[in-house]
């Protein structure tokens, strides 16, 4: 009996010991799991419970033009916060701070009396406001540095650069396309929280982290060429009472975009004041019927496929031609025109007959080769590919209308890129806007280079078309207004009806001019589009003068040598007389053309391209006080050349540095 009791006792002791051993092993294993294997996760959970991270705006890298002129920068500004538990008198503090922060005293007091100890009072404050708050010397009020995006040139290149939102993310343009490149790392502040999750204190400043800047983006844009394009485009739109306009300037040899202008424009420092139509980059996002500018590619394709020869003649039917049950009209009545004359006088009937000889299949292949119907893949968001229907869906009149630029749409950039292929000898280049990406120290991280997409025509065909296009600008052509003093110009006018529902509008037109200069070894391809002009519907009247003005100033700025084969226009006889000293004036007499006070000083000379010293020398002879702006070479003046001026008239000349 005793033995049984002893056995049972030993069994119970062993059972209890085994249970204790099991519990110990389980507890030790659980402790090892929590303290070793799950340590990092649990530490983060703990920190999450008693800390709150306040994100700070990350810095953005800068955007520069090709000469490193800043187009977009991030500036440090003070953001103000309050630690409510350190405020001795909340109503009094609210009363002092409210007028500076744009609150009412009651609103700010309610904000400070909320459940949180840490409260933002104002983000990225103006320096004078931040200083006034500092001068109050309030306990519990602190500042931290945050960055704000700033565009130092206001409207210049606004549609290309784009803008950011209230948070640091890019919303349009280069800011959006390269957002991940430009955007830096987010900084933070850390606040302590009690068991109920209420903020109680800021940690030491050393445990916070300021945002770091991202990489810089250097564009192919030239700020001065961009300014010239925007200025002349705006003048063309306003002068012609138009709805808007587009201008694109490219290097035909490389595809580098030097300027891309839209009018109306906007100020990216306050973009939300404008509607979505104004903010859109119409040069890449909108497509329109190109009109007669399309005849460039028709003739190039026909020559390349040996469907025509330059000296071939076509009967232009005295301005009326029936084709596929429809009637095609020319603005003027022509009998027989050669191929160069069809371009020079912009004959739709002649173009339709060239298209018929070429055929739909070959014309479609050529147009797709020139990049129509597909995106150019420029490094900007929101690009359209235009509309070029499959050749199998062309019916009846389509071959004729597409030959002269109707029934097909393209963006301004597509047209400029395609014309650049003619200018550079036949290579379709990929247009691009970013030259390279660099870090904050200037080290190049990524370099972009010109890319040839494909050869579309032979150099011989390109040369023939270029010389034909020169006739458009010469006397008798539709684009004489595009002529540039001292340079040979090749180009083409375009006038297209705008669609209005299922038919064409009787009044709304798109007027354009596209060309390249100089004719031999072209440096610039320029396209100007004026939308719905009210003065005249013709591209040669509305857009060609703007092309000439942009080209004249840009060529001078870029120091492109004058073409020696072009004879300089003779100065007006009146101008020559004015530059000679007047004997009567030397004797103290007053005669017409002298520089006596209040008298006539003659016509305003054309100062474009002159140095400051040359301008001063001429104006000194005239006895005029001239205001000089900037330095370098003259690109703009007031009054304009040829205006009658007196010694009392305000005169100014603007200069920009040469590249």
UniProtKB/TrEMBL annotation:
GO biological process, one term: cell wall organization
Residue spans crossing the bilayer: none
Location of this chain's protein in the cell: Membrane
Domain PASTA: 598-657
Organism domain of life: Bacteria
GO annotation, cellular component aspect: plasma membrane
SMART domains: PASTA
Disordered as annotated region, ranges: 569-606, 629-650
Pfam families according to UniProt: PASTA (PF03793), PBP_dimer (PF03717), Transpeptidase (PF00905)
InterPro entries the record matches: Beta-lactam/transpept, Beta-lactam/transpept-like, PASTA_dom, PBP_dimer, PBP_dimer_sf, PCN-bd_Tpept
Name of the protein this chain belongs to: Penicillin-binding protein
Protein source organism: Geomonas silvestris
Lineage summary: Bacteria, Pseudomonadati, Thermodesulfobacteriota, Desulfuromonadia, Geobacterales
Gene coding for it: ftsI
